[in-house]
Fold this protein.
Amino acid sequence: MTELTLPLDALHRERGGRMVAFAGYAMPIQYSGEFGGIIAEHNWTRTQAGLFDVSHMGQLEFASYDDRALERLLPGDLTGLVHGHLRYSMLLNENGGILDDLMVTRRPSDLYMVVNGATKHDDLAVFRAAGLAPRYRDDLALLALQGPQAVTVLERLEPGVAALSFMRAGQFAEMWISRSGYTGEDGFEISLPVAEVEAFARTLLAQPEVKPIGLGARDSLRLEAGLPLYGHDLTPAITPVEAGLSFAVSKRRRAEGGFLGSEIILDQLANGAPRCRVGLTVEGRLPAREGAHVVAAEGQVGTVTSGGFGPALGAPIAMAMVDAAHAPEGTKLGLDVRGRIIDATVVPMPFFPKSYVRQGASK
Amino acid sequence: MTRYFTKDHEWVEVSGDTATCGITDYAQGQLGDVVFVDLPTPGKTLTKGGDAAVVESVKAASDVYAPVSGTVSETNADLEADPALVNTGAETGGWFFKLTLSDRSELDSLMDEAAYKDFVGGL
């Protein structure tokens, strides 16, 4: 497959971005320079504001009245979704397995959905097979501005955005801005025309609080925040309950069912799932990576689905899918890293506290 | 003392029968922030081109191959406390291990510094 380029490709290269293939696009994994490198970029985002180009993600628009049809594929309450509110949800298969995780927002004239870049074409095929006709907006770019200074920066450029609370969105000139993201930090996701994204990105990068951040730090940030990554922690063989995402199965949908895989998912909600996604702290400094076996006295009891080094914690951390008997917090497990068994402990996630600005919260 | 380089971006410095091995500055730049180095146990016999060590950066684990064959005589204890030495001094204080050479003729197939610079320049 030919590698596609992002609308900001030239800007990434100008800023010293090391480009790698990801989701079919050439994307920056990290940048060079004084504030470049995954750890520096990670820490910058935790203390200032990081700019992420996430234009590889799929932006879809559905008719407002598609909410009922979408509810057959997703376990979230979409008909009850209020204008300007976002909902995290998942596209499911008939076994309740996760085909993708996504965000849906009800806007005045449509339902706006953001799906993963690597899965967007498969998702479109699923929606079309279900008789839906979403508009795929590849004429739009998507930026994420994340970190404690993000609100100060964006309010300076687009007065009014500070009034949005977490998981709320609105129209600001030609930009659709959501207070959301995938780093565990406060911040925004900004959808705007491809033709305008470079000028706006340059304006953002001209602010003293803002540095460009690559995919490497995006991964370490979301890992520390305990957020699962599609294709790794979430797959078609994993249900929302097993993934620890039961919160995304809305109350009304639990009562009514009627979505793909709902019998399996509702049974797991009532009686427990056979296995669970857990967070693990890892002894020592050797990181356990995706694929490492999780072992207990009786042998393998799970597999690491994401693992690496948590820069803010200064230690290795991991997520794993483990048998339910070994999932309670505090359980001691072993991780097989190249034949060496490393001690690990099940801990609650996030590993690093989230800093969302929720509605009604005083901050 | 003479320094040799491999196409896999390892360096070897030979003094008598002892070869000090590490990864090049170019390699550390490609790997990014190093958080752990999994070193071979002293006494282990390594074969040229075979697995010798693993460098864990924030983003991935990368294999390091033995640039020449020999028996591990010493590993760099400083890397345990400060793996980032690989980033700050890949070709100096961030060396990985020392080998007692088993076949000096293997050195003939390696590059000298000028040849390695040309090689990297062409990447």
User: Anything to note?
Assistant: The longest strand of chain A covers residues 299-310.
